[in-house]
Write a structure and sequence with these properties.
It contains 5 helices and 7 strands; from the N terminus they run βββαββββαααα. It is of the alpha+beta class.
Length: 180
Amino acid sequence: MRKCPRCKVDLKQKEYKKVMVDECPKCGGIWFDRDELRKAKDNTSDNLRWLDYEPFTSNNSTANTNLVCPACKHLLNETTYDKSKVKINPCLNCKGTWLDKNEIDKILNYLQDLIVTKTSKEYAKATIEELKEIITGPESKLSEFKDLVAVANLLELRYAVEHPWITNLYSAIYQLWPIK
């Protein structure tokens, strides 16, 4: 049985965003096995699915902790999720991630805030990167294609916000178009 790295009690399985995870009934922390955190994020909102963060790469600064991985019993590390202030505990051995109570909500809020602040230029660059990832990305081709569609939709919306005259032009053309 898997044990909570903080409380040392048995973790209970639960479904979170269509992903089976292990939750501590005492402290509310959640263990995400390899790739489950990304899947839960992707299942939260199509707008978030293209935002990927990999806490297991060597260029992410991590510190060792005294927390034991529930899956493989190696020591967990501590790092900050992307540029948020949320501290997460990845296992560099089995690639799972421990999140304390409410950290998943903080991560999702951070990502929601992130998509609102990006410019159309940033979305255009991200669209090109997602197009490349269809060929080279770590996820399935279908998943990478869905990421491309998500960021392209956000590019379209951001462009419309930054250039409202285009939206007005489309609306005027639609009103005059004889076939509807």
